[in-house]
Amino acid sequence: MGDNDTFTVTFHGVRGSTPCHGPDTHRYGGNTSCVSLRVGDDTPLILDLGTGVRYLGHQLRREGRPFVGAALLTHLHWDHVQGLPFFPPVLDPDTRLDIYAPTQEDGRAAGTALFEMIKPPMFPIDISALPSTLAVHTVGDEDFSIGRFAVTSRFIPHIGPTLGYRIEHAGHSVAYLPDHQQPADGTLDIADAVAELVEGVDVLIHDSQYTTDEFRHRATWGHCTGDYALHIARTFDVGTLVMFHHDPSRTDDDLESNLSCWAGDDCGPKVVLAREGMTLTPSR
User: Fold this and answer.
1) Residues linked to residue 203 through DSSP beta bridges, in sequence order
2) Can you tell me the distance from the alpha carbon of 177 to that of 184, in angstroms, rounded to the nearest whole number?
3) What are phi and psi of 60, to 5 degrees?
4) CATH code at 149?
5) Which of 167, 225, 186 is nearest to 16 (CA)?
6) Range of the structural domain that residue 192 is part of
7) Before 121, cis peptide (omega within 30)?
8) 110-158 pLDDT, tens digit each
9) H or E element, residue 280
10) CA–CA distance, 252 with 195 (Å, rounded to integer)
11) pTM for the complete prediction?
12) pLDDT tens-digit profile of 66-81?
């Protein structure tokens, strides 16, 4: 690919559940889920709107052009949406943000459910008071395009309606499954939808919130272990596995200790820890 066609993946928030801050987490970062995908200098495609999107927004504003783009939401839990009203471009009347998210179990459209979170008394103003244009599109098991990206969305196991995504451009691919319920019965079964999303991808960004010991006590909390993420990556010929959605109690030293175990096998994919500010180029 030429310089104007380079596909990059940048991490702006890598934690799960709640933001965290302190000397023990400064190397990898404490903001919640937000990743951007970009081709050349195109407007980036945003994956989730956790607190990390605030910092992405500052970067975009420095580029000096209106933001007209899209975000893919995996689900509507707080840690994946709480950055939306703090995304600096939403204060610009020239901004248009198209948000793609799953419908809810009670039948509410994604936009109805999302915007109910961003109004008094939960937030100082109603989201409709923002000058930007925000449009929410309900998606499910679908295949569609956004800009130069081909997008595959599939429902995956978690708590509540949750999508995983596969995004492709020019023969390169990224799969994004930040919240994924590992089988609670101790098996290593992998859902068909997960297999479809991750088969042969260059980069898999995957939930790795719990250690094996923690999972024994939190087996129904909607997440998985790094070991299970590695099992998926090995099974489906993933190029690089990015351990993501770090538990807020996990220190930087803890993360690196875990990585030494996951990355010690030459038979599997390359394994890296998601870190705020890190940029990857999907390739083999």
Assistant:
1) 174, 240
2) 18
3) -65, -40
4) 3.60.15.10
5) 225
6) 3-280
7) yes
8) 999 999 999 999 999 999 999 999 999 999 999 999 999 999 999 999 9
9) strand 279-280
10) 30
11) 0.96
12) 999 999 999 999 999 9
Share above pLDDT 90 across residues of the chain, in percent, rounded to a whole number: 92
Separation between Cα atoms, residue 44 and residue 21, nearest integer Å: 26
251-283 b/e (C-beta count within 10 Å ≥ 16 → b) = bbebbeebbeebbeeeebbebbbbebebebebe
Listed residue (52, 106, 104) closest to 77, CA to CA: 104
Distance, in Å, from the CA atom of 246 to the CA atom of 11, rounded to the nearest integer, reads 13
Q: Give the amino acid at 265.
A: D
Question: Tens digit of pLDDT for each residue in 206-247?
Answer: 999 999 999 999 999 999 999 999 999 999 999 999 999 999
Q: How far apart are CA 270 and CA 230, in angstroms?
A: 10
> Nearest-CA neighbor of 60 among 90, 82, 80, 85?
90
Q: How many domains does the chain fold into?
A: 1
- Is 97 in contact with 64 (CB distance < 8 Å)? no
Distance CA 237, CA 235 (A): 6
Two tokens, residue 265: 């096998």
